[in-house]
Write a structure and sequence with these properties.
By secondary structure, the chain is mainly α. The chain has 7 helices and no strands. The chain has helices spanning 11-31, 37-66, 73-94, 100-132, 135-148, 166-175, 186-196. Helix 2 (37-66) packs antiparallel against helix 6 and helix 3 (73-94) runs antiparallel to helix 4 (100-132). Bound molecules: fe (ii) ion (2 copies).
C-alpha cells in the first residue's frame, strides 16, 4: 500500500509479493516435519507451479529490461544461473527416487537457494533497477509480466477453468479435497474440477 492507501501495482511489488507467497508455501511444507508426505508433496506441486511461472516471467519480461542497465549486466547473468540451480533441485525433488528424509533435506536446500536468490534480487538488483525505471514503466512491466504468465490483471467475471493457471487449478483441487491432484496434468485437473465444482 502506498501512502494514500493505493495498492502498488508496479513490477517490484508484484515480484516481492510472489517471493513471499513461495516462501510461505515452503514454510508450510517444512512445518509438516516429514509427518505427512502426501500433504507435503501436494503443497510442493502448488509451490513449484508458482515458482516456475515466476522465474519464466522474470526471464522473459523483467531480466531483459534490467539487463539493459549497465550496472546490472553481471547480476542478471548470475540471477539466471541461480534459476538454473533451482530448476535442477526441482528436477531432483520430482524424480521419485528419494527417501522421505532425503526429499525433506533436498527441499531445505531448495529453500535456502531460493532465499539466497531472493535476497540478491530484492537487496541488489531491484534497488539499482528502481533508479532507472520510473513508476509508469514499472506498471507497464507488471502488466506485460502478468500477461506472459497467462494471468489477467483484472478479474474477469465468470472465469472459466481453462483460463486459470495450473497453480490456481491445484489450489482449487486442494480446497475441494480431491485426492492425488498433485500428479494430474492441467487437462485432468480441468476435467475433474468441472465435475466437482
Ligand atoms: Fe524473483
Ligand atoms: Fe529470480
Amino acid at each position: 500500500m502506498g501512502i494514500f492507501g493505493k495498492k502498488d501495482t508496479g513490477i517490484f511489488q508484484r515480484l516481492k509479493d510472489e517471493h513471499r507467497e513461495v516462501n510461505s508455501l515452503l514454510d508450510q511444507i517444512e512445518a509438516l516435519g516429514g509427518e505427512d508426505m502426501q500433504e507435503a508433496k501436494d503443497i510442493f506441486a502448488v509451490m513449484q507451479e508458482k515458482l516456475l511461472a515466476h522465474a519464466k516471467g522474470e526471464e522473459m519480461v523483467v531480466y531483459p529490461r534490467f539487463g539493459q542497465i549497465e550496472s546490472l549486466h553481471e547480476l542478471v547473468l548470475e540471477a539466471k544461473e541461480e534459476h538454473q540451480i533451482v530448476e535442477d533441485l526441482l528436477a531432483k525433488l520430482n524424480a521419485d527416487e528419494l527417501e522421505d528424509n532425503e526429499w525433506m533435506a533436498a527441499l531445505k536446500v531448495l529453500k535456502e537457494q531460493i532465499q539466497h536468490h531472493v535476497k540478491e534480487e530484492e537487496g541488489e538488483i531491484f534497488p539499482r533497477a528502481k533508479d532507472e525505471i520510473e513508476a509508469r514503466e514499472s506498471e507497464q512491466l507488471a502488466t506485460v509480466y502478468l500477461e506472459s504468465k497467462g494471468e489477467a490483471t483484472e478479474e474477469e467475471p465468470g472465469e472459466s477453468l481453462e483460463s486459470l493457471s495450473k497453480a490456481d487449478l491445484l489450489v482449487k483441487a486442494r480446497e475441494l479435497g480431491i485426492e492425488s491432484y498433485s500428479r494430474m496434468t492441467k487437462a485432468e485437473l480441468i476435467q475433474i474440477l468441472s465435475v466437482r465444482r
